[in-house]
Amino acid sequence: MSADSSHDAPAPAPTRPAWQRLLTGFFAWAFGIAAALVLAGLTVAGVALAVAYPNLPDISELADYRPKLPMRVYTSDGVLMGEFGEERRNMTPIGEIPAVMKNAVLAIEDARFYSHSGVDYKGMLRAAIANLGRVKSQGASTITMQVARNVYLSSEKTFTRKLYEVLLTFKLEHQLTKDQILEIYMNQIFLGNRAYGFAAACETYFGKPLKDITIAEAAMLAGLPKAPSAFNPVTNPARARSRQLYIIERMEENGFITAEEADAAKKQELHVRTGTQTTAIRAEYLSETVRQLVYAQYGDEAYTRGLNVYTTVKSNEQEAAYKALRKGIMDYEKRQIYRGPERFVDLPSDPKELDDAIDDALSDHPDNGDVLAAVVLDVNPKKITAVRASGERLDIVGAGLEAARSGLSEKATPKIKIRRGAIIRVMKTPKDTWEITQIPEVEGAFIALDPRDGGIHALVGGFDFNKNKFNHVTQAWRQPGSGFKPFIYSAALEKGFSPSTIVNDSPLFFDAGVTGGQPWEPKNYDGKFEGPMPLHTALAKSKNMVSIRILQAVGTQNAQDWITRFGFDADKHPAYLPMALGTGAVTPLQMASAYSVFANGGYRVNPMLISKITDSKGKALNEASAPPLNESMRTLDARNAYVMDSLLQSVALRGTAAAARRAINRPDLYGKTGTTNDSIDTWFAGFQPSMVGIVWIGYDTPRKLGDNETGGGLALPIWIEYMKHALNGVPVEQYPVPEGVVSVGDEWFYEEYTHGAGVSSLGLEDKLPQPPDEEERKSILDLFKR
Predict the structure, then answer these.
(1) Residue 19, number of CB atoms within 10 A of its CB
(2) 6 phi and psi, to 5 degrees?
(3) pLDDT for 220-238, tens place per residue?
(4) Which SS3 state, helix, strand or coil, does residue 266 take?
(5) Number of C-beta neighbours around residue 756 at 10 A
(6) d(Cα 298, Cα 109) in Å, to the nearest integer?
(7) Which active-site residues does the annotation give?
(8) pLDDT digits (tens, 9 = 90+) for 423-454
(9) Burial class (CB in 10 A: 0-12, 13-18, 19+), 18
(10) What is the pLDDT of residue 559?
């Protein structure tokens, strides 16, 4: 081998240090493991997607979103009266939701909603950093994710549920537009107090339609989705206010409002509904009646398919009726003895514990309309200091203490003694002072309808629906008392009587064979007998003896048959002489229908409440309209109705209801007071040609209202208060004189009964009856006592 051969051979490769070989091997191993993990993760994710995606719910129905919608009941002028369903919701298209409401929600829930694809990665990172920094977070869930969770998934915190949520979010974003998703969210989200969606929440918390919402109100509602209980403006006003202010700041930061608008919104005082009332007018009895009627037709679907039920009710008249009945009952309550505080509680001396104690004490004693609950903090004979659930402190002094003087006396029993910790009722006076009062035990009813078509304009079935759900207009069978007399007089007109017929107001006595019960010696209300008088005077003065004599002449069986023309049940008015004084049984609704026959000239019309039912989109499902008055509906001769109207007009002008003419100052008023024996039931039934109104006052368990309580003093003022409002602007209307009726000496007669052809007098030949002996007198039963 030559010397050059060794020079040409390749040099051996340099050997790497051991540490480099180990490092390279580690990275190779790590990369391989990482690649394997990624591959495994992708495989698992692929398998998970392959398994999970087909199991995702079908969301095609959301393109035509139809949530459970409650039945909503409206007045004829479109005011909401009531709502029935598991979920209180008012479906509102996205185009009808005010921009301020949408912006408030976006500012706090998902400001980048219109720019991300369903999952906001920047928002998730921002939320994570915020949580680490313990500052307020906007949350990591987007609106689309919340829709996926709220509509289809549970709220459990598991990996599987989260996976489904993310997948469903992408599916929603793929198949629906952003506006469709936001519309679902704005209508679906739960916002407390049974309100679902912001339209329902606006009505629930602020008593107004969503279209009228302000920035401040929108910010308050936008704070509810995160925690409807924690940020509820009714139960947690302080926390709700704090979150509202934060949302207003977020709206400004995101450019939704200006700095000036933000400042104004922060300063706006909100009026949040704090009671159980969730509608603009008080019509619970009406709404419940409608609910029963609609349920009978639609069953359980009535509560979920979004039916809109329109009634014949006038919102302003309904509110006037509610206030009139409440005022009349509370005026009566002022004349009653003080029954004492509703409850006594021990109040802590520590001011920090006092607020909670007051809240607990009043939780079971909610406000009753304008009759408010309060807890006494301090009391002496000249002043009561109390506090309401809202924290408002009030002082009751002077005349405001009169109703509870007995409870301030040193001799007061423990049951009625007013002391610290007593739960009392208070009311605001017209002079803006406070007075002590109490929840009334007496009940009442009011109904008003149009006699031309039967449309019910107002109905109040009791003092307070939450206190007593028994509808006294439709369910209470009570004695009508003197309010029934016109129907007996009407029967008499067909027997030849006239307004000028002279009837003797003298004492009467009947044995058991005549009364159908026990011997009976009736009296007039005032205990006096005035002798012979014309029929029109007898009705105006509500003379019992005259009514009884008329019924004798007509015949009890004939009269019983006659009253069925007005809609009364014959079996509830036994054919005996006490029927003349209204000892049968009627409901206020029956009385309204019966008096309508007089008011409309002799036609029988059925009361009507529901005029139209539509589905959630406004498509009419049922419509009803009353037929025009025609002769097929006639139940009473036009002449009879006209003469009876003239008699009832004299009652309102000069008789027991003369206060109506003085207060309302118009001549076209007609009516009759009604007071049963011992003033157990009091009534006023009256009308104007376009409106019939019936008032009843009494106790559920019949008992005496008071020695001086009458239909004219107790029921009539309520009727007057309502009619002042209902007839405002209504032209005076006089009935046309029908054919066959003639005027003689300012009195109206059937033409065939003029010139002495009719009944000129009754009972003038009667002699005073011999008084019964003592034993027989003891057996006399006053039929009116119960």
Answers:
(1) 8
(2) -70, -30
(3) 999 999 889 889 898 788 8
(4) helix
(5) 7
(6) 39
(7) 109, 482
(8) 999 999 999 999 999 999 999 999 999 999 99
(9) exposed
(10) 97
